Amino acid sequence: MLDVETVTKTFFPGSVNERVALRDVELHLADGEFVTVIGSNGAGKSTLLNIVSGKLRPERGSVHVGGRDVTRLADFQRARYIGRVFQDPMAGTAPHMTIEENLAIALERGRRRGLARGVTAAKRSRFREELASLELGLEDRLRAKVGLLSGGQRQALSLLMATFSEPQILLLDEHTAALDPQRAALITRLTAELVERHHLTTLMVTHNMEQALSMGTRLIMMHEGRIILDVDEARKVRTTPADLLAEFEKIKGGGLDDRTLLQ
Ligand SMILES: Nc1ncnc2c1ncn2[C@@H]1O[C@H](COP(=O)(O)OP(=O)(O)OP(=O)(O)O)[C@@H](O)[C@H]1O
After folding, report:
1. For ligand 1, atom 2, which residue shows the shortest CA distance?
2. Residue ranges of domains in the chain
3. 196: CA distance to ligand 1 center in Å?
4. How far apart are the first and last CA of the chain?
5. What's 2-81+167-182+198-254's CATH class?
6. ABC transporter domain spans which residues (predicted)?
């Protein structure tokens, strides 16, 4: 479903600030695969998601979604195929619009042009049903402005908006990191439910190793622009955070002082 082939991305090439963020990255996700992505600061995790979403273009390599070459498509052109939730709960929703208006826009994103963006009775009843599944009482607040919601509620709404038009790929970029533990647990649970319900092919970046191990069907570890470890489901269920750190140290030849993986 997702094929990232020999992708290289360099920021400020040829200057003193040159930084190779991705080096010949090769990643293939089968339909419905849910891959968690961990790695130290600056490893290239967000850059990888930005390359998949189309926010950034690689200077080398290609990106295919569902067999279609999207390498040259801008992010808005890929929005039909790709849903994304960011770390900042404020990023995924329009605060001055109501809950139902936000949902109507998200629904339209998955469809052909020309369909009405308005909120019909049929849509409203679907929104109510979808919101009820979040168990946050938002189904009774369809006409409330999104800016009035808490961070956790907004993130839950962002997640729903990113998933309910059933994108081919779902990208989650540390989407629970800015929330308190209780809200993070809620969003984690909703993520698992929505991914399962819609059978979504998912890439989730996290700094939380427990979360990376407990969620998804596969785990990859990045370091200095490369995928240095790829753990399948069978192995993942037997792996602990300490195992991951030991593996990281072994691959890097020991002497590791970057403990960010342990967060
Ligand atoms: N827009 C940009 N301009 C210049 N350099 C960038 C840009 N975005 C990322 N980089 C650099 O590319 C490298 C990879 O960054 P990236 O944000 O992808 O890492 P990350 O694994 O997501 O890190 P973190 O866990 O700290 O968010 C870093 O060295 C970073 O400084």
Report:
1. 11
2. 2-81+167-182+198-254
3. 30
4. 31
5. alpha beta
6. 2-249
